[in-house]
Amino acid sequence: MRVALVVHRVTLDMSSNMETIKTALNKAANHGADLVLFPEAALTGLINNDDPSHDLPLGQAIPGPATDILGGLCSERGVWLAIGLLERDENRLYDSAVLFDPNGKIQLKHRRISRDWHGKKANPSVYCQGEELRKVETSLGSFAFLICGDLFDDSIVARLRNVGPDWVLFPFARCFGNDADVQAHWDKEEKEHYLARVKVAGTTMLMTNYLADKDIGGGAFGGAMVVRSDGFVIDSLPLGKSGILYIELQR
């Protein structure tokens, strides 16, 4: 399969972000992608601040208007799409990701299980976590999601190993919160932690992070990589730039 991992720039304008997502998906489809992967909270950025009056409007119903648009585009272009979205379910908010098939139907939804996407004092009746971790069988192989901090929780990774997907879709949102040389800091300090966790998971992982300025939830430094189950980086994009990483993968 030909996979496209998108690193797009997120702004505070959701309508603009949706247009950016649509443009990137069309570009990936034009380049022959079978599957297109976007980061965590791709429509808004991870800009929640633990104030429900601010955060609940960021959430999308799944299914709902946003997923109808994305599903329609998948159907039009005949591609699989994996994307992270903040999800609103009545007055509850989740950090979620969905996988659409080429007919525009949602085949898999994952609600982030790890808790650190919100503050420790956030209202637990509003800021919620998922419980399920499952895979879906497709013509491209079987897929499961982990979202960001899920990868660093031993119990969640153990559950993933029991599920045993062919591929793990890993949308994430990450910044360093300082003025360090981001690429150098990543290469020296952070990258190996991610590779080590992929080795623990034991499954090839497709990973992508959005790009955003610091006024958007502290920012995000971008970057995408495909990491083999033994921790070897098959290919990657440099940090700090929007773009699409194309890669051919076989089971």
Describe the structure.
- With 251 residues, this protein is an alpha/beta fold.
- It has one domain: 4-Layer Sandwich (Nitrilase/N-carbamoyl-D-aminoacid amidohydrolase).
- The chain contains five helices and 14 strands.
- It has a six-stranded mixed sheet with strand order 5-4-3-2-1-14. It has a six-stranded mixed sheet with strand order 6-7-8-9-12-13, with no helix packed on it.
- The longest helix has 20 residues, at 182-201.
Main traits of this protein?
alpha/beta, 6-stranded mixed sheet, Nitrilase/N-carbamoyl-D-aminoacid amidohydrolase, 29% strand, 251 residues, globular
Topology:
Elements: E1 2-7, H1 14-30, E2 35-37, H2 52-55, H3 65-77, E3 80-89, E4 92-100, E5 106-111, E6 136-138, E7 141-145, H4 154-163, E8 167-172, H5 182-201, E9 204-209, E10 211-212, E11 220-221, E12 224-227, E13 233-237, E14 243-248
Parallel strand pairs: 1-2, 2-3, 7-8, 8-9
Antiparallel strand pairs: 1-14, 3-4, 4-5, 6-7, 9-12, 10-11, 12-13
Helix pairs in contact: 1-3
